Amino acid sequence: MSAVQEALPAIKGSRDAIVRRFALTDTIFHAATRAAAILVLVLLGGVAISLFAGSWQALSTFGFSFLTTESWNPVTEKFGALAPIYGTIITSAIAILIAVPLGIGIAIFLTELCPRALRRPIGMAVELLAGIPSIIYGIWGLFVLAPFLQTTVQPFIIWLFHGVPGLNNLFAGPPYGIGLLTSAMILAIMILPFITSITKDVFDTVPSVLKESAYGIGCTTWEVTRRVVIPYTRIGIMGGVMLALGRALGETMAVTFVIGNAHRISTSLFAPATTISATIANEFTEAVGDLYTSSLVALGLILFVITFLILAIARYMLMRIDARTGA
Amino acid sequence: MSTAASLHQSRKRKNGVMMTLCVVAAGIGLAWLALILGALLYKGLSGVSLAVFTEMTPPPGDAGGLLNAIYGSVVMTIIAVIVGTPIGVLAGTYMAEYGRFSKLTTIVRFINDILLSAPSIIIGLFVYELMVRPMGHFSAIAGAVALAILVIPVVVRTTEDMLNLVPNALREAGTAIGAPRWVVIKSVAYRAALSGIVTGILLAIARISGETAPLLFTALNNQFWSSNLNAPMASLPVTIFQFALSPYEEWQQLAWTGALIITLTVLGLSIFARSLTGRREDR
Fold it and tell me: Phi, psi at residue B157, to the nearest 5°?
């Protein structure tokens, strides 16, 4: 009895020590996780600041005309971003035009038409393909797609449209194989899995009751898709397309292989051109002189701003559909 | 009656046309991707030999292998994972455990999602300004840091998602027996979400093992064997980039073989990662 009474304060003391230690460790762990979360914010802020600092020389030298000048001349040190911006926007826009209808078609196929047994394997294949590195698409574009386009498709299209006003400018010039259209096609293949898998995911959020009631009043599969599924998921699809657009705008390696790296704006889709990311990838390590390097970083800053805006809009749209489905 | 019948006919026809187009779209998409993988297998396999894994990258017009490039890729990937994973897991832990409903979490989630799909070449420029310029030279460690920055958002995202899936009853049970919060997180939440978190790490490895753009002006490239982290180091993607654009046939062949190696690695990692969480999805 007395032995227990003697031991009590000691137990109480060690218990207090343990509780204190627990509390301390908990505070430390809490702070560590919080610091890591803040680090994610710091990273993005750091990216913005360092790009801005690195491009300051070019921006202060050329001012606003950096955005509107086509010339890119390392010898005279006159740099303008118009040609890369033009190439970036044109290739991404064409890629979206090709990939969105295809991607939505595949998503409809997967959710409405595909036999149940094939649904999972094909869906899984699409997701796996989204993970294939872009350099693989680039090497395929350079060695397989470009020669094929050069020897068969492009001569035929040039011959087909050479007398048609408007189109003859769009499809003009010697068939190099590489150029704007080839890059856009490679980009389209690359973003196709993204668009498909996001569209399929948002299609799956449509409550079956909605679809069943439409089928119940005698709608065809297409009418259900067109009048019920797509209106219900419009924001989600838009978000997915914007996400794919963000990827297409910033895609580097696949484009660098097949764009041709020519700093000029031409009306022909067959002409070699350049994009922001391809210019940086091709020229950064060879850039001599601070102004040249700084101009390349300024290109990076422009790309960063554009993709940041696009991705922010995309995430906002996808968040809205998440909030609605309560996911 | 006849107008109703013809309307029915035209609606059926329209449905048939649109559904056929969807099947065609699926056919085109799958055939296109099959063409790419087919060409990759065909061109890549013809160059696979023991020399690829035992010899250094050759000078122009000579036979050789990819050993130093493979070694460089493995080393930089390992460092990137060692640096990036703890930060990612901790940040994800904050978002799912300590600050699940805080404002900070909402902001971090938004920013993290943007980092997740930000162009990787921008990360390369960032690390160039951050490390290469102050140090005065390209280095493997700068390349590894660039890759680590790509690892973080993937791990943050999966860690948060997986911890959110852990039932609260488990945490409450832990708290009820008097365990402090960090013990509950470490011994209950982490353990329940382990396979998901590992999946995230594997997916992050799959992502960075094919990244080229962030390495171009951080780790640069190296024609020779180098294990010096403070010097330029070869990597598989950058070597493929350099060799594929060269006019030499031996180099182009090695580029195809390297591309095949990367693709198989990435596909293998993704499939393995998915198989870890596959059971959860089936339930």
Answer: -60, -50
pTM for the complete prediction? Answer: 0.90
Beta-carbon contacts of B200 under 8 Å, excluding residues fewer than 6 positions away, are B88, B154, B155, B157, B158, B159, B162
Catalogue the long-range contacts made by B95-102 (C-beta closer than 8 Å, 24 or more residues apart): B95/A37, B95/B156, B95/B160, B96/B159, B96/B160, B96/B163, B96/B164, B96/B189, B97/A33, B97/B163, B97/B181, B97/B185, B97/B189, B98/A30, B98/A33, B98/A34, B98/B181, B99/A34, B99/A37, B100/B164
- Taking only residues 83 to 142 of chain A, the set having a beta carbon closer than 8 angstroms to any beta carbon of chain B reads 101-106, 108-110, 112-114, 122, 124-125, 128-129, 131-140, 142
How confident is the model over A168-193, as a mean pLDDT?
87
Which helix (H) or strand (E) element contains residue A73?
Answer: strand A72-73
pLDDT reported for residue B38: 92
Cβ atoms of B175 and B184 closer than 8 Å: yes
CA of B64: how far to CAs of B70, B185, B235, B238, in Å? 13, 51, 15, 17
pLDDT above 50: residue B146 = yes
What pLDDT shows up at residue A100?
94
- State the greatest distance between any 2 C-alpha atoms of chain B, in Å, as a whole number: 84
Q: Which residue has the tokens 């390297």?
A: B258
Q: How far apart are CA B235 and CA B260, in angstroms?
A: 15
**Position A1 pLDDT exceeds 90:** no
If phi > 0 it is left, if psi is from -120 to 50 it is alpha, else beta; for residue A216 that is: alpha
State in Å, rounded, how far the first CA of chain A is from the last one.
59
CA distances from A304 to A49, A301, A307, B126, B269 (A): 11, 5, 5, 11, 30
Per-residue model confidence as pLDDT tens digits over B175-229: 999 889 999 999 999 999 999 999 999 999 999 998 999 999 898 888 888 888 8
Percent of chain A topping pLDDT 90: 48
- Whether A315 sits inside 8 A of B113 (CB atoms) is yes
Q: Which of A215, A224, A252 to substitute to test the interface with B, most B CBs within 10 Å?
A: A252
**Which ipTM was obtained for this model?**
0.89
- Whole-Å CA distances, B139 to A190, A287, B84, B103, B121: 30, 18, 18, 38, 17
Distance, CA of A20 to CA of A17 (rounded, Å): 5
Chain B CB contacts of A140 under 8 Å are 36, 39-40
pLDDT: is B103 or A6 the higher one?
B103
